[in-house]
Amino acid sequence: MHPLPRATWRVLLLAGIAGPAFGQATLPDLVVTGQAPGSLTAPSVTEQREALEQTPAAVRFVDGEALANRYAFTLRDVLADTPGVFVQSRYGQELRLSLRGSGIARGFHLRGVEVLQDGVPVNLADGSGDFYQIDPSAVRSAAVYPGGNALAFGSSTLGGAINFVTPTARTAPEPNSLRVEGGTYGTWRLSGQASAVFGDWDALAAGSVTHSDGWRQHSRGQYEQFNANLGYRLNDRVETRFYAGTYIVRQQLPGSLTLGDALNRPQTANAAALAGNQARNIWAERFANRTSIRLDAGQVDVDSWIIHKQLYHPIFQVIDQDGLTWGIAPRWTQRYEVAGLRGELVLGGRYFAGTNDALQYVNLRGSRGALTANGVQRAQNYEAFAENRLWVLPTVALVAGAKMLRDERDYENRLSGQRFSRAYEGLNPKIGVLWQPRPAVQVFANLTRSQDVPDFSDQLQTVNGLPFWVPLQSQRAWTVEAGTRGRYEGHGWDLTLFRSTIRGQLLQYTVDPSTPASTFNAGTTVNQGVEFAGYLDLARGAVAAGDRVTLRQTWTWNDFRFRGDRQYGGNRIAGLPPHVLRTSLTYTAPDGLGFIAPALDWVPEGAWADYANTLRANAYLKLGLEAGVTVAPNLHLFLDARNLTNKRYVSDLGTLQNARAPGANTAVFYPGEGRSLYLGARMSF
Fold it and tell me: Which positions, given as ranges, span the membrane (predicted)?
């Protein structure tokens, strides 16, 4: 068969006859093109992937280059094809992220997962967090470490950690780029990147402005994100890199709805959200440094950071906060050989702390009324961790490690003069084994202990409109997992089975949709499930030499239950659907000319909204289509059509104790976005 000329491919692709890349493939190919050399402080993407693939655990890698010519509006778009990661949109860039049931019932913000940017924590010192610092258009790579698998970063929560790596001038696929995107609901984004290497110095700056009028009433939002880094190589053994970022968020909140309204009047806003002009406005700045020193025996990396955040958040009351978080984290890594056996040792520690002035006012249509709360929240964390990997056979490695922690929480009520505090301590061990029969095939198993400490949103619960301190316990869990991953002759797989036995799981229930949920420690619960991703090259050279047709499938099964609970027996824990599946069929044209692929998102059963298991969201199927084409060596066009059948569905929800209880307010559902279309162009130079 004769190859089609390039001009013909461009016409076909622009007409929508070819298909989307499986952007966030968790099993990427070994070949990486356009990769500049790495550095001590910023390893190349190839080095990052190789290091991750030696981990005896369910860890996943996302190459940001696969996102370059796609519409990635939120972190859900970055992680959509990663098994075990549940990311659902509410409105704008407001998301809920959960790994293995972390924060399963959390109806707002982030808990139970540590979000890192370039290896430095984004979370506040109490463990809570947001996603506004992570710009999807400026992600060079991402690595997902569920549970105790994130020990090498110092994390040991049930959910683990996700590390988003920004590009440097030495790792960016191209020095400079410019993107423009737009689509339905008044959505547009302008983003760009500029970088340069000059001798021992390198610098990169990336920024974006994103605006959307919103699909729902009262959901207009604008996000302004800027990230930059400056590296200096003192000599072949010493390098330092400075990071800086500023972030501005202005997001109206449409609130949650009853299930009937979410499915029948999905574009309406909650009446209380309108009456209170509810919004979330953030102004934040971030500064960080990594200094790396290569020694005769290993390498020392020292991370330090400081984050300032202002929050103006009119909801049930006006939450007005001003906080500062800072920390330092030294780590020593050494590769060694003993008795003919090779190994790698990691020793590290972290100290990070923060203080937050937390005021609340009566909400007068989004403006401050009378003062109702005035307090200061202080958090300190002391952590030490170690992990050792030893290859006892050429194809078998054993891993052992542990983390010690002491987390202190202190709250001072300036109105009453009361002061409350609590300290949490723990020792979290880990043991694992990796068998690598072939260079690209691995079988692994490990056992880890995790510990989640309540954040201030958990401990300061609203009673009669005032903050009330609740001395919650930490959440402790043992997780066992076993799995395999690999690639072989045009197909690949990533399969993990896990089971977590949890004591004191931190669960929430909604008192009122506008009020932060109340948190309690459950008894014994079990989180278990399956995480699967696979791809298969169905055909090569189907239409022209060098093309490829690839089928990809991800499946996450969540079976989270109470065990012998006095009130809920063996009911399912509310918050997440049991099954989440995504299927895509990608046609990739020769020579990187373009792609096209339909994608199907399927939730066969909706999530339970209450622990009594009397109310659940609907099941749904969503059909989408992505396509892209290279019209010149440095110019790429792409489109993303979503929810083509305009399916009405629930994208996320809060949780209740019993939806049938007298007086229960069941307005806890967030409707998913309707049919939409987005177009974009990227120019590199």
Answer: none
